[in-house]
Amino acid sequence: MAAEQDRGTVARYIPGLASISPDQFGMAVVGADGSLATGGDAKTSFSIQSISKVFALTMALGKVGDQLWSRVGREPSGNAFNSIVQLEAEHGIPRNPFINAGALVVADVNLSGHMPRESIGELLRFVRYLADDDSIAIDESVARGEAETGYRNIALANYMRAFGNIRHAVELVTGCYFHQCAIAMDCVQLARAGRFLMLDGRQPDGGQVVSARRARRINALMLTCGHYDASGDFAFRVGMPGKSGVGGGILAVVPGKASIAVWSPGLNESGNSQLGTLALERLAEATGWSVFSART
Ligand code: GLN
């Protein structure tokens, strides 16, 4: 990947991410058999940003189950991740849990009965458990920077609060959301955290994280909504459930085969990692891994 010239641009609108060099690339593949393959900067930590929405959704479903779907939809939005336009016509119900508006509702659900600090702690513990790595932490400076400049997210939360679809004080909900986005992980940790999605909801040691049905459904949402208005293109090129973040990370799942994390900070115009997507496309081609292929 080192020879690729077009690396996209890093997310400049988040202060903590603006100065990160796009000249980085890492990948980790954890196989269903427990094998691990890594390449490049696989042990460099990055801000997982919207990839955290997968873990937050999993936690919210554990708390309220299918009731969640009365407050968040399950359809691709066809709009940018931070768009506000659909919310008015759709009465404050976000299209899906992976656009920012949907993730804010999920953060509101996860906050129920908790102080923000506890809610963030619970999510961090969950991610550490999934990755089997207690060293995973939140980058407070990234969280703070986003809280200071996240006017769009604050607007989205206020707007949904007006419809009654955000139930806690807006600053508490956005505070939790900015902290979950600021979780820092490397590719190896992230690929490990995604193992339950390739193993029908189980950890490699057999521990059940979610039911097989729920894992299947989360994968379906990742495939249809995980790359915002480029989800169709990602399915076309890569053919795996995947979730991107503006830190340049992508978590991709090949059920029964592999959990893959890739990272390169330069983004394409949809806010998805330019090189990361290309790497996954090439991996899919080389291995035949695709949820649409008989070879998988
Ligand atoms: N924290 C970012 C935001 O809310 C997450 C967006 C993303 O990763 N797509 O804008």
What can you tell me about this protein's structure?
With 296 residues, this protein is of the alpha+beta class. It has helices at 15-18, 52-64, 85-89, 100-111, 116-131, 140-149, 151-162, 170-181, 187-193, 195-198, 212-225, 231-237, 274-287, and strands at residues 26-31, 36-40, 46-47, 137-138, 183-185, 242-244, 249-254, 258-263. A 5-stranded antiparallel sheet has the order 2-1-8-7-6, sandwiched between helices. The relative contact order is 0.19. Residues 49-50, 81-82, 100, 146, 153, 181, 245-246, 271 line the site of glutamine (GLN). The site of glutamine has 11 residues, from loops.
Topology record:
Elements: H1 15-18, E1 26-31, E2 36-40, E3 46-47, H2 52-64, H3 85-89, H4 100-111, H5 116-131, E4 137-138, H6 140-149, H7 151-162, H8 170-181, E5 183-185, H9 187-193, H10 195-198, H11 212-225, H12 231-237, E6 242-244, E7 249-254, E8 258-263, H13 274-287
Antiparallel strand pairs: 1-2, 1-8, 3-5, 4-5, 6-7, 7-8
Helix pairs in contact: 2-4, 4-7, 4-8, 5-8, 5-9, 6-8, 7-8
The protein binds glutamine.
Summarize the structure.
The protein is an alpha+beta fold. Helix content is 44%, strand content 11%.
- State the helicity in percent bands: 40-55%
User: What's the pLDDT, averaged over the residues?
Assistant: 96
Taken in chain order, the helices and strands follow as: HEEEHHHHEHHHEHHHHEEEH
CATH superfamily: DD-peptidase/beta-lactamase superfamily
Class by SSE composition = alpha+beta
Bound ions, cofactors and other small molecules, one mention each: glutamine
What percentage of amino acids are in beta strands?
5-15%
- Principal-axes geometry comes out as globular
Q: How many angstroms does the end-to-end distance come to?
A: 25 Å
Query: CATH top level?
Result: Alpha Beta
